[in-house]
Amino acid sequence: MTIIAFSGKGGTGKTTLAALSVKYFTEKDDVTLAFDMDPDAHLNKLLGLPLAKTIGNVVDHIHKEKKLELEPKKPVDVSDIEYFYSRVMSDVLVEGEKTDLLTLGKPSSDIDCYCPVFYWAEHAVSKILKSYKRPYAHIVTDCDPGTEIFPRKILDRIADESGIDYIFTVLDGSRMSLDTAKDIVNEINKKHSKFGKVYGICNRVDDLKSQQLIKEVALTSYDLEVIGFIPTDQEIARRSLMNQSMLGLTGSSAFESMKKALKSLHI
Predict the structure, then answer these.
(1) Cα distance between the two ends of the chain
(2) CA geometry: angle 6, 186, 12, nearest 5 deg
(3) Lower Cβ count inside 10 Å, N or C end of the chain?
(4) For residues 125 and 147, which has the higher predicted lDDT (pLDDT)?
(5) H/E element holding 94?
(6) What φ, ψ does residue 140 adopt, rounded to 5°?
């Protein structure tokens, strides 16, 4: 099993590159589990998968059951964790032909706090990695922006259970995206060895001189190796606008570049 996570500054294209990675694994005929941990929840659209409910929705529902606003459905002899996990498996986990998807989502304004969603998501991730029977060859995680992935602990739980092989921090050619990458690396360096190597992947910078400058600045000033440049791809923009899956891309220069970057690490 290969576990990779896409992190970085907001707006750099983490979700798109995560979807292209899932496409790469799909074309290898591998079964992949995709985690959408960005509360904005857009990965399902790029993968062409339905999204009925999120973990946030399940937390809302159970919260209302406990407040007796809804008739409780939890059997008295079932723990809260087991009940929550069963609801996630039945209501949230989307099973595709070669890709399954688990989406974090947002809590309602009634709860007004992300904490319960992140807390229960930790347990769902742990349970799935421990006991879910479908054999996943890979796990691709689309993280929320910046360093927010760390206090929310979900990535830590994935690392604890299975280790994380690679963390890709997505750059857009700006100093801000490099600064965010540095903050992410600093947070990872505080963690245990189950967090793997961090690499930079630069998105939508097409000028060769600019690419070379970014590689040099990233390496010399940030100690970050950039392993690939994903070009601007109008077909990706078109498919996104038309709400079409990235899995159906053909002749895509962005996908070919993403494939090249993954192959360079023998993934």
Answers:
(1) 10
(2) 30
(3) N
(4) 147
(5) strand 94-95
(6) -115, 125
- pLDDT bucket at 72, cuts 50 / 70 / 90: low
Contact 179, 145 (CB under 8 A): no
Q: Go through 104-113 and write b for each residue having 16 or more CB atoms within 10 A of its CB, e for each that does not.
A: bbbbeeebee
Instruction: List the one residue out of 229, 227, 225 whose CA is nearest residue 253.
Output: 229
Q: Which helix (H) or strand (E) holds 2?
A: strand 2-8
Over its C-alpha atoms, the chain yields an Rg (Å, rounded) of: 19
CATH number for region 2-264: 3.40.50.300
Which residues face 36 on adjacent strands? Answer: 103, 142
Beta bridge partners of 202: 171, 229
Cα gap 12→104, rounded to integer Å: 20
**Separation of alpha carbons 216 and 226, rounded Å:** 9
Pair 23, 158: CB distance under 8 Å = no
247 secondary structure, DSSP code: G
Q: How far apart are CA 156 and CA 51, in angstroms?
A: 25
Residue 23 near residue 246, CB atoms below 8 Å:
yes
What would the pLDDT profile of 193-236 be if each residue is shown by its tens digit? Answer: 688 899 999 999 999 999 999 999 999 999 999 999 999 999 99
Helix (H) or strand (E) segment spanning residue 170: strand 164-171
pLDDT digits (tens, 9 = 90+) for 242-251: 999 999 999 9
Residue 120's pLDDT is what?
A: 75
Distance CA 116, CA 171 (A): 31
Q: Which string of DSSP letters, residue by residue, matches 43-83?
A: HHHHHT------HHHHHHHHHHHHTTSS---S-TTS-HHHH
Question: What does the block give as tokens for 197?
Answer: 């190597």
Task: Name every residue whose Cβ is closer than 8 Å to that of residue 108 and which is 6 or more positions away in sequence.
Answer: 56, 60
